[in-house]
Amino acid sequence: MKTYLSFLKLLLWGLLGMPVLGMGQSAYRVTGKTNMLVNGRAVLSKMLLTDLRGGRETNDTVPVRDQKFTFSGVGRSGQYCRIILLDAGGKQKLTEPIFLSAGNQRVVIDSLTEPHDFLDVGYGVSMEGSACNDEYIHQYLAAYQASDEQVKAFFVRRRACSSVKDTAAKRGCLLQAETERLQIRKSRDSILYRYAEAHPSSRIMPWLLYAALSDHGYSEYYQAAFGHVAPHTDPKMRLAIREFLAKQSLKAPKRMFPLIDLLKRNVGTAPGQAKYTLVEFWFSNCAPCIAQFDELKTHYQDLQKRGVEVVAISVDGKDKLAAAQKVIRDHQYPWKQIADVGGEQARSINVHAFPSNFLLDRQGKIMQTNIGWESLNQMVNKN
Fold first, then answer.
1. 308-314 sheet: strands from edge to edge
2. Residue 366 contacts residue 355 (beta carbons within 8 Å)
3. 27-31, 47-51, 300-304: the lowest-pLDDT one
4. Domain boundaries of the chain, sorted by first residue
């Protein structure tokens, strides 16, 4: 983390003429139309930095009447938002990200509009009048065009592995796919860095950097990107990103696992008791978690013989503890279990995606995060 002196230096740079973004808030008005909801509610959901910034962003909730709605208020230019459409029964439809600018803007949410980022899960939005959103679509996302084609080709190759009949060949196919996935992630992180280097005063870049940290964890590319955008960024947001970088770096490889004391207190697992410890975060209604556990179970005895201990941490709330125990009994998972009731410990280290895992060495240091079975098998064989 930067020192307080460095923070003052950055602040002085802003005062002495380097453009500092978002120092004040600007009025915006967003008029919208959708064919996905006749009457109901629309929420302009803003990315929140509440925990770190000391302030509070409020979401705008307005009525939808005859397919139309209007948001108006004040906010930071470049603000990262999504729109949520709510019908009378509370059913939600979430859009892709949009970025606000000052002044009047128009959005159309159409059920047939594809999201501009094909990896995004939200409905596509057509937006006019926002220079910040135009930058996101026509400059930032455009920088990923070649990488997007690599990702699409990767998905095809990864799916092909499931049709391989020979066990050894299938294992090799999955291992190659996992290696390629890690390479693609590194390549995409480098694109974000290069964009920050080329556009350090971009109003959307701080929000994109924060979102990347939240989605993918710490990266040296993100740290370097922050160095470019920091002098141009609102002091409060600069502090938020700096602290988030520091927090996410606690989960980076070669760092001591931040919840090692939790393992010691609950299951007696301490550094030195196993050559490796695989820590898995999950919850009872998480289908991908259970699918991953079922695969892990088939290899568990072999892993134990080779010095791998497994600890699963459930983040189910009090009302779901019985459901979690039922999953464990029904599937007969043999490894150690910890109940992190309500996910308080998981949130303390910013684990929000499930399943998530950490492979620890004998000392309790992180070797790799979100490791797949084939990569785990290869790593154990090497060591």
1. 336-339, 308-314, 276-282, 356-360, 366-369
2. no
3. 47-51
4. 26-128, 142-249, 260-382
For 188-247, the pLDDT digits (tens) are 999 999 999 999 999 999 999 999 998 888 999 999 999 999 999 989 889 999 999 998
pLDDT in tens, 178-201: 889 889 999 999 999 999 999 999
- Structural domain 26-128, CATH architecture: Sandwich (2.60)
Please give the sequence-ordered ranges of beta strands (E in DSSP) within 254-347, or none if there are none.
276-282, 308-314, 336-339
Q: How far is CA 228 from CA 176, 206, 304, in A?
A: 34, 10, 46
Whether residue 336 contacts residue 310, with contact meaning beta carbons closer than 8 Å, is answered with: yes
- Cis peptide leading into 355, omega within 30 of 0? yes
Band (pLDDT 50/70/90 cuts) for residue 2 is very low
> Selecting from 3.30.1540.20, 3.40.30.10, 3.40.50.300, 3.40.33.10, what CATH number does the domain 260-382 have?
3.40.30.10
